[in-house]
Amino acid sequence: MAGDAGPLRALLRAANALLQQRRYHAALAVIKGFRNGAVYGAKIRAPHALVMTFLFKSGSLREKLKSIAQATYAHSRNLAYFVFTYKGLLAAQSRLQGKKIPFHSFLAACIGGWLVFGDNNPINSQIIMYLLSRILFGLSRLAVDKGYIPQPRQDPFPLLAALVWGTVLWLFEYHRETLQPSLQSSMTYLYEDSDVWHDLSDFLVYNKRTDSK
């Protein structure tokens, strides 16, 4: 047993020595970025897909589990590919110009976004909308920090909350097809299914009756 462990320990020492080499840092960072993208994508998508699938999707248990696995794989794969592409392009630009500048980040991410997230599907659409909301918040704060717009005298968040909820409910009531399917499902559950019941079972216990009574 001790003889078998010797080559393994030597291999681990060689791998650890390689990881400490500064000249390989950029390439190794790209590889670890791929790893982290895959893991993070799975962690984010799996619980979300689990909840949304069992709440709103019909079908057998096998079909539901398959849907969860497919959504998790797609999110994990896309995020891994994007991080790999972004960090690779960032390293290549920095090497070509001899230094890192802010435009490198923008260009690398634009190319990665086009290549990886350019397909208009439910997973990519959800990710882009998630990012868009945070971009708008970030740009608003940046504009205030840079002095492009004055610092508000009062917290504008209550007004923003009112406008966001007013707009989304108006769209749901009168232009529902413009909203993402998962948001439609959530709002149907909250605002329409709560208008319908037959007895105590589907008033308090269940959302909808499961029998044919």
Automatic annotation (TrEMBL):
Name the domain of life this protein comes from.
Eukaryota
Q: Name one GO cellular component term.
A: peroxisomal membrane
Cite a single Pfam family from the UniProt record: Tim17
InterPro entries recorded:
Pmp4
PANTHER family listed in its UniProt record:
PEROXISOMAL MEMBRANE PROTEIN 4
What is this protein's record name? PXMP4 protein
User: What organism is the protein native to?
Assistant: Orthonyx spaldingii
Gene for this chain: Pxmp4
